[in-house]
Design goal:
This protein is of the alpha+beta class and 471 residues long. The protein has helices spanning 8-21, 31-37, 59-72, 124-132, 150-156, 163-166, 201-205, 239-247, 262-272, 291-307, 319-330, 332-337, 354-368, 394-413, 432-451, and strands at 27-28, 52-54, 76-79, 96-99, 106-110, 115-118, 136-137, 173-179, 185-189, 214-221, 223-224, 230-236, 256-261, 282-288, 312-316, 341-344, 347-348, 371-377, 382-389. It has 4 domains: 8-99, Uridine Diphospho-n-acetylenolpyruvylglucosamine Reductase, domain 2 (2-Layer Sandwich), CATH 3.30.43; 106-224, 2-Layer Sandwich (Uridine Diphospho-n-acetylenolpyruvylglucosamine Reductase, domain 3), CATH 3.30.465.10; 227-335, 2-Layer Sandwich (Alpha-Beta Plaits), CATH 3.30.70; 340-427, Alpha-Beta Plaits (2-Layer Sandwich), CATH 3.30.70. The chain has 15 helices and 19 strands. The strands form 4 sheets. Strands 12, 13, 14, 15, 16, 17, 18 and 19 form an 8-stranded antiparallel β-sheet that branches. Strands 5-6-10-8-9 form a 5-stranded antiparallel β-sheet. It has a 4-stranded mixed β-sheet with strand order 1-2-4-3, with helices on both faces. Helix 1 packs antiparallel against helix 3 (59-72), helix 8 (239-247) crosses helix 10 (291-307) and helix 13 runs antiparallel to helix 14 (394-413). The protein is globular.
Length: 471
Amino acid sequence: MTELHTGSAAGARFIGDLRDALPPDRVVTRPETLEGLSRDKAHVLEPGRALVGAFPTSAAEVSTVLQLATEHRIPVVPRGAGSGLAGGANAVDGCVILSTLRMDRIVEINTDDMIAVVGPGVINAKLSAEVAKRGLMYAPDPSSFEISSIGGNLATNAGGLRCVKYGVTREATLGLEVVLADGAILRTGRRSVKGVAGYDLVSLFVGSEGTLGVITEATLRLRPSPLPAGTLLASFPSLADAAKAVASMPSVTPSVLELMDQTTIRAVEEWQHLGLDIGSAAMLIARSDTADFGRAELDAVEKACQASGATVIHRSIDALESEGLMGARRAALPALERLGITLLEDVAVPRGRVVDLVQAVVRIAEEHDIRIGTFGHVGDGNLHPTLVIPRGDLAAQGRAMQAAEAIAAAALSLGGTLTGEHGIGTLKRHQLAGEIGPDGLRASWAIKNALDPLGIMNPGKVLPPRQAIPD
């Protein structure tokens, strides 16, 4: 792999060529602008110092940026809306930050084929609103859907509240346009729902976090708008009881099945004043969009909650009340962020091991003396234990980092994964070998080297250094 150039002379030549090749408003060097572009929402990670920012508006302009970066050996950090939580969009020293936010055109919504073709800068909520006007739904709905971009969702393979039934971003992606490190423009995938010709390059790029190329257009699968949903809220005397309720309903797949622990409930209630029961140790929120407001499905959910000791069960078919409960869940992270610096974990385990995971999180919080608010997509085993660090408390930050390592290790020991939807970024790259093993790392590096032989694409993200791979 060729050494990248981050020095001032090479950087100056690159900036000059970039300004010659792109319209003036596409290239920025102002320090205050670069500072704002240089980090995502992984607050415990410090970014590097970017050289320049680029704001292309087309695949051709992205290609130009990457051709010049290849020529000058300049590292490239692709960036969407910056709502990521693993440091994947953090600047590295001497890089060009390539923002796709100006590529925000909805190219096509085809109701016959049930697809949308969009640029990476389209905001998730905007796409959802536009397809809803046509009686359709774009299923992936991360909690940050109002601010996160489709490109970022694709880069991290984002999930969301509906993923328990409809799957994560990869399951909704049919085709991609990707600009490779040398500037070549690759089109892969198709417009049809089915297709198995050749290697699955679409799935390779979805979740690759900008380390293999820059996604410049996506063909996305749409679904019919769901039926009106019924909602169930259940309160429990312990977090383990709520997890047991989920584990005891294996034949049920509601459209939403979410968990909030007492720390999270109290943080949301103190902020939003929604009337949540702050005395509950845990709360489950379930929605079903099957016929008759999901009556039969929610009957099964209610039965499981009763058997697991739920103290209060409330059901509603009122749309405003249901959306209010969804809003409470979506407010979990910002509510916890009001209490201090947050380190948001993102681990997933088989649904039958959720009880073990939540018990491990409670134990780890006590052992490391760290406040942890646990919430997440419990229906598919994906939880977000969120470690809250008092601002300015470096000792607590150190304990939090150790606790996060312990949570990830616990998830792996339960047959789970380091990340269900946020990605590896820089936050967890040192832990990746524990999940995929040395052979998995060697195969991953072989792919990386084939597509990015100079190593310019988001260096230092996802994969640990090759020399660190055990023999």
